[in-house]
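Changelog-linked ticket: 2-acetamido-2-deoxy-beta-D-glucopyranose example.
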Amino acid sequence: MKLSTLYCVLSLLQAALSSPIGPSKQLEALHRRNVFYAGGEYVFNATQGGTILINQQYVEELIPAAGAKHPYPIVFFHGGGISGAQWLNKDDGNAGWASYFLNQGYVVYILDIWSVGRSSATDLPPVLDARTVELVEIAFSAPEVYKNYYQAQFHTQFPGTGLKGDPAFDDFYARLLPLQFNARQENITRTSTCALLQIIGPAFFISHSIGGSAAFLATDGCPTLVKGHVAVEADQAPFTSYDTSVVGANMSSPARAYGIADVPLTYDPPVTDPSQLVQKMTGQLQYKDGLLFRYPCIKQGAPVHKLVNIAQAPVLFLTTQASVHILFDQCLVQFLEQAGVNVNFTKLADIGIEGNGHFSMLENNSDSIATYILSWLVTHE
Ligand SMILES: *[C@@H]1O[C@H](CO)[C@@H](O)[C@H](O)[C@H]1NC(C)=O
Ligand SMILES: *[C@@H]1O[C@H](CO)[C@@H](O)[C@H](O)[C@H]1NC(C)=O
Ligand SMILES: *[C@@H]1O[C@H](CO)[C@@H](O)[C@H](O)[C@H]1NC(C)=O
Ligand SMILES: *[C@@H]1O[C@H](CO)[C@@H](O)[C@H](O)[C@H]1NC(C)=O
Ligand SMILES: *[C@@H]1O[C@H](CO)[C@@H](O)[C@H](O)[C@H]1NC(C)=O
């Protein structure tokens, strides 16, 4: 191929992504950065004929240039199918939550959860990722266009149209990575996040979506090192996964055999096999104007087992007005409360923060949500 032809092909490819966001509009908070890996162990691998390091987790430490003003740092757990980049500058070029909390004087740790991004592993099976542009628009950036559930109509805060071709959407979609989510990941994030806390000392957690599962598991693993957990639409419903795109309306599939994880958790009385947890359906499917409005939930039937380690850290659980999570987040909150966890369940619309979808930390009014989180952190220091 002639160089000029190659150049022409490259230019065409470039044109396909409307207009990249490029350098930021609003500068990130001034900070010093340090990168390291926490956890991990050397093992001999016979197939590879040598020793390899496995299970290490990428950590980015950001220290405010003006120094720390709070006694405990914040560890950020990103959601599924995206990396720690979710906490840096937003898709519209404005500063995100890492900057917000740096400016408030917090030392911030950003993980790439094990097997994701810069924590990807050499011995993982390939992942099938069926997340098309359409599914991302439906579930995250433009649910109001598709109206697959009642609350979708209230979504207004995603920058721009939330559709392919809008620069903010294109930037958001480009950041997405293959979704890794399995029991082995749960075990490893618990161990390697606790290894991080052994190094940095007690910390607050801020998690999003599937990252909430990693944060609960780390609390289970080393509860005395967790000051509190701000769970933004954490994880999914207990024992069940609902279809977040709501394409199949009432689609659910069994998941999380131990309630909120597929690996054993510290329950009292102890649970050595998932069959010891009695599942009890509560509530029912509700519709409004012919659209899905609430999912039923599964709680524990008697005897109720308490999550004694996870219960040692208070939780602020946030759910937005228009995310698909408004259909089922009450299920996880009820399950946690029943298991002895102290949860402050705040529906953002109830405190006047309206129009957000699932990725609220990347939406226009992200600072309003961060300000509310800050008020909770400060009272729990
Ligand atoms: C050794 O490495 C191979 C190839 O990467 C991988 O498939 C296998 O799971 C590893 N074995 C162990 C015991 O980790
Ligand atoms: C979000 O911000 C963009 C500018 O970045 C603006 O055009 C849009 O109207 C804003 N949307 C809302 C709901 O405030
Ligand atoms: C997770 O760890 C437990 C022990 O804590 C072990 O029994 C189980 O096999 C592990 N599961 C996976 C998938 O690695
Ligand atoms: C929805 O799912 C629940 C639980 O699987 C089932 O009991 C119910 O019949 C389903 N409803 C509809 C309308 O499909
Ligand atoms: C939940 O946390 C917020 C923020 O600190 C606080 O204003 C509110 O009173 C709390 N709600 C409950 C029920 O504790």
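Closing comment: Example verified and attached. The chain has one domain: 26-379. Residues 1-17 have pLDDT under 50 and may be disordered.
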